[in-house]
Design a protein that fits this description.
metal ion binding; dITP/XTP_pyrophosphatase; nucleotide-binding; seven-stranded mixed sheet; ITP diphosphatase activity; 7 strands; Maf protein; alpha/beta
């Protein structure tokens, strides 16, 4: 069993990743379950840079393999915002309600055809010495609704419409989200590469 730390305190992300990673091969632990984990400052200008910071710094500190991800929403009408600031768009980190409110205010009066958006996920795997061993990314395109709909998911899910379903991620069940999300798309290329790496490590 390969021992892997997920570099986040976000319990909902942990649930999603546990469903997407092979449980018979990987023992996944979140930072919330580890005493002495550090809070890595997300000073990167891109999702890629932040994912690498979170993976390498935590790996060195814990002396363990760490998988970190940085994800967020980019909205075309807002020139890519909220981007790397998605989790703290309204100021306080992780305040989904305030972030969604601010996004709706920023897009007030913008018509449907100009509300295109994309969820982005960047993954980075670091060895215990802080060396990046694997990276992957995935995206999911959609549109921002004019009001929240659905109570499933987290973050901007209640505002993110999947065009093929005409429903938000907040309305779709986890099985559908697992097939379509930016996170699952990133993991589709990442997991086979990680399995090959684990096999080589013996």
């Amino acid at each position: 069993m390969f021992d892997l730390v997920l570099g986040t305190h976000n319990a909902k992300k942990l649930v999603e990743l546990r469903l997407l990673l092979p449980a018979d091969r990987i023992q996944l632990t979140s930072l919330a379950e580890i005493e002495g984990a550090i809070d890595v400052e997300e000073t990167g200008a891109t999702f890629t840079e932040n994912a690498a910071l979170k993976a390498t710094q935590q790996a060195i500190h814990l002396n363990r393999w760490v998988l970190a991800e940085d994800s967020g929403l980019t909205v075309d009408a807002l020139k890519g915002d909220p981007g790397v600031h998605s989790a703290r768009y309204a100021g306080e980190h992780g305040d989904d309600e305030a972030n969604n409110e601010k996004l709706l205010r920023e897009l007030d009066g913008v018509p449907d055809e100009k509300r295109s958006a994309k969820f982005n996920c960047y993954l980075c795997l670091s060895d215990p010495q802080g060396n990046v061993q694997l990276e992957a990314n995935g995206t999911c395109g959609g549109r921002i609704a004019h009001a929240r709909s659905g109570g499933a998911g987290f973050g901007y899910d209640p505002l993110f419409i999947i065009p093929e379903y005409h429903r938000t991620f907040g309305e779709l069940d986890l099985t559908v989200k697992r097939a379509l999300s930016h996170r699952s798309r990133a993991l589709r290329s990442f997991v086979p590469a990680m399995m090959r790496m684990i096999a080589q490590l013996g």
